[in-house]
Amino acid sequence: MSVVDKIVGYPVHAVAEYHDWANPYAVKFVDWIATCGASGTKAGTSSEFGQAGSARERELCPTCWPVGHSTSHPTPVERGQRIEMPA
């Protein structure tokens, strides 16, 4: 796990893809997909993703972090459009 790995959620997921957007009232959100396939939308922007160095081992998603803190991930990919969430 690199301190620069972007994380979100609980358990702690590694962000693989994201898209920043705003609703008609200019409230900012970010859609995200984790390495394990989990997805969601959070208020704020991608600059507000957490940093992996602060996560405790027991808080990590076992699929995103198969070897715990030794796992590292590439920089998340920014999509040009909203991410379709599974139903």
SSE layout and pairing:
Layout: E1 6-8, E2 13-22, E3 28-34, E4 39-43, E5 50-51, E6 77-78
Parallel strand pairs: 2-6
Antiparallel strand pairs: 1-2, 1-5, 2-3, 3-4
Write a structural description:
The chain is mainly β and 87 residues long. It is built from no helices and six strands. It has strands at residues 6-8, 13-22, 28-34, 39-43, 50-51, 77-78. Strands 1, 2, 3, 4, 5 and 6 form a six-stranded mixed beta sheet that branches. A hairpin with a 4-residue loop joins strand 1 and strand 2 (13-22). The model has no long low-confidence stretch (mean pLDDT 83).
Task: Please describe the structure with a list of short key phrases separated by commas or semicolons.
single chain, 87 residues, mainly beta
What's the story with the biggest beta sheet?
6 strands, mixed
End-to-end Cα distance, whole Å, is 31 Å
Query: Radius of gyration in whole Å, from Cα?
Result: 13 Å
Please work out how many helical segments DSSP would assign: 0
Query: What structural class results from the helix and strand content?
Result: mainly beta
